[in-house]
Design brief:
By secondary structure, the chain is of the alpha/beta class. It folds into 4 domains: 227 residues, Acetylglutamate kinase-like (Carbamate kinase, 3-Layer(aba) Sandwich), CATH 3.40.1160.10; 154 residues, VC0802-like (2-Layer Sandwich); 148 residues, Rossmann fold, CATH 3.40.50; 182 residues, Dihydrodipicolinate Reductase, domain 2. The chain contains 32 helices and 30 strands. Strands 3-6-2-1-9-11-12-10 form an 8-stranded mixed beta sheet, with helices on both faces. A 6-stranded antiparallel beta sheet has the order 14-15-13-16-18-17. Strands 21-20-19-22-23-24 form a 6-stranded mixed beta sheet. Helix 24 links the parallel strand 23 and strand 24. Helix 1 crosses helix 3, helix 4 packs antiparallel against helix 6 and helix 16 crosses helix 17. The longest helix is centred in the first third of the chain and has 25 residues. The radius of gyration is 36 Å and the shape is elongated. It binds adenosine-5'-diphosphate, aspartic acid and magnesium ion.
Amino acid sequence: MKLLKFGGTSLANAKKFLCVADIIEKNKNHEQVAIVLSAPAKITNYLVNIIENNININQALEQIELSEKICIEIIKNIKKIQSNFLYEETKKIIKTEFNQLQNIIYNFASLKKYPENIQAIIMSRGEILSIEIMKNILISRFHQVTIINPVENIISKGSFLNSKVDINASKKCISKINIKNDNIILMAGFIAGNNKGELVILGRNGSDYSAAILACCLNSKLCEIWTDVDGVFTADPRKIFNTFLLKSISYEEAMELSYFGAKVLHPRTIEPLKDFNIPCIIKNTSNIKSKGTLICQKNNSNENMLKSVTNIDDIAMFIVSGDLIKQNNNLISKILDILKKENINIILITQSSSKNNFNFCILEKDTKRTMILLNQLYELELKEKLLNNINIIRNLSILSIIGFNIFQKSNLTSKIFSSLGKSKINVLAISQGSSKYSISVVIKKKNILQSMQTIHDELFYNKTIINVFLIGIGGVGKSLINQILKQKKFLENKNIEIKIRTIANSKKILFLNNCIDLKHWEKYFKESKEKFNLEILNKSLKNNCFLNSVVIDCTSDENLSKQYVNFISKGLHVIASNKKANTSSLEYYNKIRNTALKENKKFLYETNVGAGLPVIQTLQNLFHTGDNLICFKGILSGSLSFIFGKLEENILLSDATKQAKDLGFTEPNPCDDLSGIDVARKLLILAREVGYEIELKDIEIEPILPEHFKKYHNTEEFLYKLKEMDAIFIERVKKAKNSGKVLRFVGTIEKGGKCSVKIEEINSNNPLYKVKNGENALTFYTNYYQPIPLVLRGYGAGNNVTASGVFSDLLRIIL
Ligand code: ADP
Ligand code: ASP
Ligand code: MG
């Protein structure tokens, strides 16, 4: 005998019902099967809505209508696929059930709250109907079916809504049922009966528990729980990235995992299976081939101790403090007893070492009742100040790490706390499970996803992940993606993984999930319908829960550069390939740095000067170790390096400029290059980097061309007019040549911070003498580097070198 349980997600529509019927048939070919079904997806939620406090009759009827619609839709479509399905009979049963439900609602409408026995009846209708539908599918496929009524046979104790099953009593009842060997056994999950024969339910998600009970009662050799994921993962795969399927876990681990919130199993499911030594497999109805996760008795000694990260949300923490706690040993046990009596589940307890502080966590929904109980219990003590006023912290979550003997795992707690620390998440309480299978921390609910992702990656994902939010996919952005793709394997060998989470340009944004292969990003980007604007970007960054997250700005958008402080405040690093932020006001320049310092995030911009040349980092290294700049001279523009190089080959200024433009060295209109402003901007960044507090306007620019050239916005016209300057430059070049010099467009920072950009005559001893053909060169005269300066020389523009500079900034985030 084998037991198979199918959850609501496996019964969401007609196709799924039929697929479940196929699985049942396949298994029946080998041995007798018993089937436990949950309600079709969503139905229990609608029914639960009915019993919510503030709902009026009409809203309740609406929920019934929605539930009925789902069921009718399911059977209609089953009939379409399986024509001999008993549609009319099933429809009649569905209609009757929902009519009865309507009557219940009219009868109890005058009450503020439905009595609990009625709540149980309302909530369990979905399961009853699942069984009716499945029974008729199986009958129409010519199977014999025995239905076990759980109210009569699954005997339980406790409240109407969260009952606990008496297995022995249930086993006795079930043994009395005459079940033929060739029959398929069907039973509604979630439902049981008390000793008065009244319907009770087993708590939300309780049909897993029903399955375990029936497996024990029927002496099944296996209990299969069929759901919508491949098995038990290292964390909820619907919430957390990079999770792994666990091949097998022990009963104890499964119990702890479900107790601490893994919804894949109801918390009470495993205990009976363990007692009867029945193995359990979690399987996926939508992926039958997957082997699933085996839960059984096992010796964990050779395995990874850590198994999963789980969470329970909507937690409130009670803080009971005062001298009485120290004096009265009974106080804590009294609290525990009274809450237990009232069916209030204490999920976690901590006590301070000074012993006058006792904290416990419960579900938020039980807060009011708990407060009333405590105030009644300690009325006198509170009055006499032996106990302080009881405090409650709400909106919390419990995050737990589950595994076998996890306390023996070296560095575990330090890893947990360091990853939470890096994400700036406060821990309000910590508890090590007495069972040695878990360690839990209490944190604010708003931080739960980020904390789980961070801790999960730290404990289970053997790689450091950098999460990239890329904006700008022009030449540099595209090259960067290609370089990241090319280096994937190389970085993997170093346990580094770069995950691009979003790619955007000024119009669109693509959110990359695990299903999108970065190789095909251009196709997906084309297909993306998501519009891009700062609001959408900020929203997605706000929800970002990854450690090591970086915004890379490969645009030239000034508005975006004004967001850097905001990004950093949200916990992201920022890499800028454009100079907008660093050449804006000194106030904003400092604000970015101060925020980055405060948030412990990086602002990197290596490519602002000299593209891929290691300029900024080299300067920072020098100055962090005590060097001082005496003076700087540099050729900071690739286009001007090219043009001035050509002049000494006796090429006319206008021709040299045209050539530079044709080779792609210049801005769309070369007038912008020749204005010298771009060189001034780079100089400003260098000057600020070495500590001079100056603005762009403080830089003296000696223009290459007279003022009136600025008015030629049309490139053709500009190049034509430029011929007017050819003769002047022939003269200047000649004059320089006569004294053994060449003309160079040089940016200078003098001692004291005076900055200028101008054409200079350079003699052959100067390192800048030979710099041409688009090369950049930067010469730093410092205390350590003199009289021979430190010289950085190489191409200072181009998509590939710039992208590689951005890439190296990216790796500096973690190195
Ligand atoms: P069913 O309707 O089949 O009972 P549930 O929704 O109750 O399904 O449980 C399955 C869900 O449990 C999965 O979709 C998944 O989101 C969630 N879940 C939570 N933690 C885990 C985990 N560690 N491994 C697998 N699934 C998990
Ligand atoms: N249908 C019930 C619920 O949604 C029981 C279950 O699915 O296990 O809680
Ligand atoms: Mg479930």
